[in-house]
Here is the input.
Amino acid sequence: MVDLAQSTNLESIKASLSPGALAVRRFRKHRMAVVGMLLLVGVFLYVTVTGPFLKGYCAPIKQVVRGEAWANCNDTSLKLMPPSREHPFGTDVIGRDILARTVYGGQISMMIGIFAASVEVLIGVMIGSIAAYYGGWLDSLLMRFTEAMLIIPSLFLLIIGARFLGSGLPDVNIFGRQITGNVFVIILIIGFTAWMYTARIIRANILSLRELDFISASRALGGSDSRIIFKHLLPNTTAPLIVGATLGVAAAIVAEAYVSFLGLGVQGATATWGNMLDGAYRYLDTAPWLWFFPGTMILLTVLGINFVGDGLRDAFDPRSGRHS
Amino acid sequence: MTNYILRRLAQAIPQLFIISIILFALMQAFGDPIATLGGRIPPRAEDKERLRRQLGLDQPVYMQYVFWLVGNDWHKIDINGDGVPDTYGTRAGILRGDWGNSLVTRQPVLTMIGERIPNTLLLMITAEVVIILLSIAIGLYSALRPYSWIDNLITSVSFIGFSMPVFWLALMLMYVFAVNFRRWGLPYLPTVGMYDPSVGKTPLELIKHMILPVATLVIISTAGYSRFVRSSVLEVLGLDYIRTARAKGLRYNFVIRKHALPNAALPFITIIGLDIPFFLAGAVVTERIFAWPGMGRLFIDQTERSDFPTLMGILMLIAVAVVIFQIITDVVYSMVDPRIRLE
Here is the structure.
């Protein structure tokens, strides 16, 4: 009896909440998602706040430098030093401080992750919604293209893309930082090789939404195609989009790391977690700190994002959650 | 059934054409493969010019694609450069079974791929067998105890495994089991290659060299697979016919074994079937780190050398395998699941 009363009570509370508020409730009850969120906040603070506090004496230019200048100060007399007080994470093959480089490299890695996921979602939404909304030959053409892209392993596409578009670009200034131009090429390449699943999900969702009455109503009221797509169809597919985009950020960070690990990623002085690993495996036994710290940062970030993504999926889709 | 297979094959043909066109267009980004040719003694300019004509690289892209596709033995090439085409080409094209020759080694592409495929399959099939067995065991174990502390532990560990970048795991395993074990005087594992040259090509050497790469692949993939097994078993366990079977007095173990597992296995077959063709691709990063002479490494090495006939060969081989295995998976699925009829 008491149980019944409680459950009806709960139902009435649930009924009074908006879908968004319900999703937030479910997310906060998802323990791993909260852990993941904390992990992500930690990594985010690490790469954004720590930077200006880092400083050290840079011997080649004979002065104490701070922030990014410290990350790029290469004192070759200090190369491959194990972790110490001055260099808590050690130094790399040309004597740069690895701690500072994980901070500044992390900014780039996270930027690549977020931008590449945005590119991916943008292309996926465009192709998916056009294919589903217009149907017919356009749909079959776009879907054959999507299938063809899915058949080629994406790492192979990434490697080919990165090998040939990745060099000879000027530096770009963004957020007050000087960044090698090929960071943006890498972002585009990752985005261009990862949109296929998003496109398929969007297409499937819109195909089922398109038949609903409110779409016919909008059309009867004279709504244009773009109004129906942007005002009615896409807002109703945000849930899978947000989940897909979140997991896409993790996938893009890993993709950048793979490509850079293979020596085809971001070039030049700009550090990323990925290109800090380039060639590090040659120092497997002599300098493990070279690969351990950037690799661990990638692991923590990806783990956090995956936890959050899983929590979001359960939060948006009550059916996939646990029935307790 | 035969009709269905034939129709699927007929659909696959335009799909493979689209893929080959996409890939060929991408290959153009390689620039001029002749420019990087020659190694220490660069060939003379006129030799490069002749080579370019001989290989058909002076032709427009669409002609190069046609040559790649159907060969150029019907097309006269101007080898001596006097402006008059004089000699017929020698290539037969991929549609007639000629995959072309590597620009770097001059060997036929099929020979180069053929040398690597056994190594890759050895690594990938061993890993996949372990992955399947382990993920069924783990997935089943946690599905039968849902939301218990051990299930939660397994879930957390799988997430960590799932999130681990391959290179980080590979380097950690090497650091612990090769570098530190040697330091501590324990029996240690070798890190790179397939054999130790000082010992020779013995089966024991091969097994020792396979342990770390296989372990890497297993840890990375078991996480995702076992989650999949867990969720499909859990889903089946919640269905009415399981409750009916229990209600009519069948033993729990019997119900699990005879009713739940075969049905839960169905989606797993699809996943495995669709993953098999990617074995051919090998594991690019794993092969690179462990210096395993497989397809993944061939791909990386030939990318660095702009050897596009070989790259086209590798990618088309994978594409054909994927398309064929998609059809095989659907057919097998319809045979084990009577609810599905292929029409």
About this structure: Chain B touches chain A through 46 residues (CB under 8 Å). DSSP finds twelve helices and two strands in chain B.
